[in-house]
Amino acid sequence: MSDRQESESQALIEAGRKLFAGPVSFLMGVAKLEQLPQAFPAEVAFGGRSNVGKSSLINAIAGRHDLARASNTPGRTRELNYFIADEGRLALVDMPGYGYAKAEKAAVSRWQRLIRSYLKGRPGLRRVFILIDARHGLKPPDRDTMDLLDESAVSYQAILTKTDKCSQAELARVRTGVEEEMRKRPAAHPEIIVTSSKTGAGIAELRAELAKLAG
Question: What's the DSSP call for residue 179?
């Protein structure tokens, strides 16, 4: 990395720190499209299989312990949960987890319709972050969601979570597999962000990416 690139990287990391240095608050939960708030200047969404660590990651980004409710019970998030940072300049959306077969079929169908409609038509949606458990890699529900995003021309980026729970060799293998998959997909951002909500690894880099998207 050149001195200029290093300087730009550090500036973005500082911008990301400042973005979340102020209040970050829960705004509302959305169960129906008509409940969606007015569009924000910038909006990003976090999706992934149930229990992949979305709520924990949002808490880590915000530097809070209990902003988003984290649970060991898969399928707990049943709404689009909105959190706002920097006085509303950026909205973070915690999407319902997908791929949890034990939920009632009617509930799963409602969640899927909500997510599909939201992803296809939300103004200001800058990017969807697809969270992938580093211990397991990509699964069919992840690919189904990425297919939808490709079809809808919605930019998305992969985040590996729970990296503290796997070996370096396992992490390298999963990361390589995800990178190969992303190179084949038209709407995918090529860079993979490697994180751990427990250790804080990758959080500064993720905040920097969010600062770029917030503009």
Answer: H
Q: How far apart are CA 35 and CA 30, in angstroms?
A: 6
pLDDT tens digits for the chain (215 residues)?
677 778 888 999 999 999 999 999 999 999 888 999 999 999 999 999 988 999 999 999 999 988 987 554 444 557 899 999 998 999 999 998 876 555 566 666 777 788 888 888 888 999 999 999 999 999 998 998 999 899 989 999 999 999 999 999 999 999 999 999 999 999 999 999 999 999 999 999 999 999 999 98
Contact status, residue 176 vs residue 141, Cβ threshold 8 Å:
no
Amino acid, single-letter form, for residue 101: A
- DSSP β-bridge partners for residue 155: none
Indicate the residue type of 22: G
Beta carbons within 8 Å of 104's beta carbon, 6+ residues apart: none
Structural contact between residues 102 and 74, judged by C-beta atoms closer than 8 angstroms: yes
SS3 12: helix
Q: What is the DSSP letter of 67?
A: S
The pTM assigned to this predicted structure is 0.91
The C-alpha atoms of residue 154 and residue 140 are separated, in whole angstroms, by 19
Regarding beta strands 90-94 and 125-133, do their DSSP bridges make them parallel or antiparallel, or are they unpaired? unpaired
- What are the two backbone dihedrals, phi and then psi, of residue 102, each rounded to the nearest 5 degrees? -80, -10
Alpha-carbon span 208 to 172, nearest angstrom: 23
